[in-house]
Design goal:
Length: about 100
């Protein structure tokens, strides 16, 4: 028979002890007390943020240097053509091709 409160306290103490020992051993090797996963995640986030800022700066500078407004008709025509191609490929896939 297991005494549940003793089991929970023992698990918490042994888990905390393991984490403290692991942190101290990692600290000796890496000279930091932060967890490796949190450092990796922060590095990835900072790289992503830097790339996003660079793209935003580039888009802003391109928009500032652009003197002509985009041709809306060509944009919608391209979207319509792409939509029609997608619908056609789905119809071909299903086997219900449009007869002309």
């Amino acid at each position: 028979m297991v005494h549940i409160p003793s089991f929970l306290v023992g698990s918490a103490v042994s888990g905390a002890g393991f984490l403290l020992i692991h942190r101290e051993l990692s600290h000796r090797q890496r000279l930091t007390t932060r967890w490796y996963i949190s450092e990796f995640a922060e590095t990835q986030f900072n790289e992503f943020r830097a790339m996003a800022r660079a793209k935003a700066k580039e888009a802003t500078s391109q928009a500032a240097h652009s003197t002509s407004a985009p041709d809306i008709a060509s944009l919608t025509g391209n979207a319509t053509a792409t939509w029609n191609k997608g619908v056609g490929s789905i119809r071909d896939l299903v086997g219900k091709t449009e007869k002309k």
